[in-house]
Design brief:
The complex is a heterodimer of chains A (372) and B (180). With 372 residues, chain A is an alpha+beta fold. Chain A is built from eight helices and 14 strands. In chain A, 23% of the residues lie in helices and 17% in strands. A six-stranded antiparallel β-sheet of chain A has the order 4-5-7-8-9-10, covered by helices on one side. Chain A has a two-stranded antiparallel ribbon with strand order 1-14. In chain A, strands 2-3 form a two-stranded antiparallel sheet. The longest helix of chain B is centred in the first third of the chain and has 20 residues. The chains are: A alpha+beta (372), B alpha+beta (180).
Chain lengths: 372, 180
């Protein structure tokens, strides 16, 4: 019987009148097609331009302020193939509280930027800033086609920000959609965590990025006093996902980064019982337990009736998780937002994992029976 | 005919509020009933049937969504200047998004859309326009943008009221995608 063990150092991981109905329809149609004008800037609004957020020391030359710290998570979020760059800025003299390994606490004034490019062209830069009341401010800036300006996007987001081919286009998400993912667990910061910044990077991670020169990681943050209170186990050994194989490690890491912000044991969707986020010190690999051989609770619209299990070992085509991940039919697709294109590299990885999982399980059954 | 319809209507209207009329309901339930009524939830989630005075909500199926036996195979075909259409029950809507069917809001354990929702997920669904607050988009013409402006207490009252409705077993069809 295969079992995933989690040593201390690892992550387990009335009646409607026609006129009223017509009004509702017109409103709905309007919402589908409208692109909002920029709102008037109120005192609590984010800066109007990316330049005003302080990312650059020389905006004309697009020189990022060297005081900001570049970083690169080992398991990147799929965003329709966008090439990304990321930075964090901590107020002088402050540090991140790392005492909760599953939810670091960032000082007031912390800023994050994430830049999205396609075909060498900057399209969007997202911005997060921790405010004095502890709340995070969300903003997105859309780059002009000539790459010279980046202006605040309406809270409703922006469709058609960049053509992706096949009639699809990249969408800058609404603030509401940003929060759907970022507020799905204890901390609103995603992609900047012990596992994501581990020096023991997964060579099999889909879309793995080369670490930027001078970028920070878990070890350097601790050494430079920018991350404090980290449990001893994490200080001594770099975290990694415990898995039965390299394929499984990469598959679990991918789901951690792309699904785990909603599907975890802490957030509002915990009653779904799908736990794809790797949690520190967990006693079992819940991402495997809640998928492999686990029945689908409620089929989504468009789900094939032959999908009975979330993952059916040996049968990716009959696995509900695969059907949803490989679809971009809005009612079926997973993730349900933030992507217009199927991540073919990840689909290939998970198919391989599901096929291999069947082999591992068969082998384990033979071992249980003492077969030669 | 009038003498027939009025008692039927009265009987139908009494179904969802029977407990309330007997004084057994707590204030949040009364508030929830009030909000559901003035919010027009029945307008789309309770199928219309033809009566002597024209279309009227079939309160024996209150808030149970598009009837499963009313098959819709494809989006409506309309020409300019029209942009969409709806079924006579007002529970199926056709537009640029395809065809949407209003959900079964009753607490039926097998077909009610809210059967797996927590109270917080219901609130977030109204705030974000996404299933269980984080999933697929709710399709037009559901005006969640308006209901999302309600207070938490009001949305909790609506949820509490919906959870004590008589369960109606009715499996609403899946939406039909727009033709490419």
């Amino acid at each position: 019987m295969r079992e995933v063990v989690a040593p201390d150092r690892t992550y387990r991981s009335g009646r409607r009148r026609p006129a009223r109905a017509g009004t509702a329809l017109i409103l709905a149609l309007g919402l589908l097609h409208s692109i909002e004008a920029l709102p008037q800037v109120a005192p609590d609004m984010p800066p109007r331009t990316l330049q005003d957020t302080g990312l650059y020391s020389d905006f004309a030359k697009l020189t990022v302020d060297p005081k900001h710290l570049a970083f690169s998570p080992q398991y990147p979020l799929w965003s329709d193939g966008a090439i990304k760059r990321r930075w964090i800025s901590l107020p002088p003299g402050t540090a991140i509280d790392g005492s909760d390994p599953d939810g670091w606490t960032f000082p007031v004034g912390t800023r994050f930027w994430k830049e999205f490019s396609f075909d060498g062209q900057r399209v969007e830069t997202r911005y997060l800033e921790r405010q004095a009341d502890g709340q995070w401010r969300y903003a997105a800036y859309a780059w002009s086609p000539d790459g010279r300006e980046a202006h605040l996007v309406s809270e409703k987001g922006k469709r058609g920000a960049y053509p992706l081919g096949g009639g699809r286009s990249y969408t800058i998400p609404s603030v509401s959609d940003c929060k759907v993912c970022h507020q799905g667990r204890r901390t609103e910061v995603l992609g900047f965590s012990a596992l994501q910044l581990s020096r023991d990077r997964d060579p099999g991670a889909p879309h793995a990025e080369r670490r930027p020169d001078g970028s920070v990681d878990l070890r350097s943050l601790i050494d430079e006093g920018l991350l404090v209170g980290v449990p001893k186990a994490l200080q001594e050994r770099q975290p990694l996902i415990t898995a039965a194989s390299g394929t499984e490690r990469a598959a679990l890491g991918y789901m951690h980064a792309n699904c785990g912000h909603c599907h975890n044991e802490q957030g509002p969707l915990k009653n779904v019982g799908l736990f794809l986020r790797q949690a520190f010190g967990a006693s079992a690999q819940s991402a495997v337990a809640s998928t492999v051989g686990h029945p689908i609770k409620k089929p989504a619209p468009g789900q094939s009736p032959d999908a009975v299990l979330r993952i059916e070992p040996g049968h990716p085509e009959r696995s509900g998780l695969m059907q949803r991940m490989a679809s971009r039919y809005p009612a079926l697709q997973m993730p349900p937002l933030g992507t217009e294109l199927v991540d073919e590299e990840a689909v290939s990885l998970l198919r391989r994992w599901i096929v291999e999982t069947d082999g591992i399980r068969t082998e384990a059954r033979h071992e249980d029976r003492g077969d030669e | 005919m009038r003498r027939i319809v009025l008692p039927l209507l009265a009987a139908g209207l009494a179904v969802p509020s029977a407990g309330l009329a007997q004084g057994t309901a707590s204030p949040p339930l009364q508030r929830g009933e009030y909000l559901v009524t003035i919010g027009g939830c029945n307008d789309c989630h309770t199928p219309l049937v033809m009566g002597s005075n024209g279309p009227e909500p079939d309160m024996t199926r209150a808030l149970s969504g598009h009837p499963q036996d009313r098959a819709v195979k494809a989006p409506a075909t309309v020409s300019e200047p029209w942009g969409g259409s709806f079924a006579p029950t007002l529970t199926a809507w056709s537009g640029p998004w395809g065809v949407s069917f209003t959900a079964n809001l009753t607490p039926d354990p097998e077909t009610g859309v809210l059967r797996d929702f927590t109270e917080q997920q219901f609130i977030q669904t109204m705030r974000t326009g996404r299933h269980q607050g984080q999933g697929r988009q709710i399709l037009p013409p559901m005006p969640w943008q308006n209901y999302g402006r309600m207070t938490d207490d009001d949305l909790k009252a609506v949820f509490a009221y919906l959870r004590q409705l008589p369960a109606v077993r009715n499996k609403v069809p899946d939406p039909i995608p727009a033709a490419k």
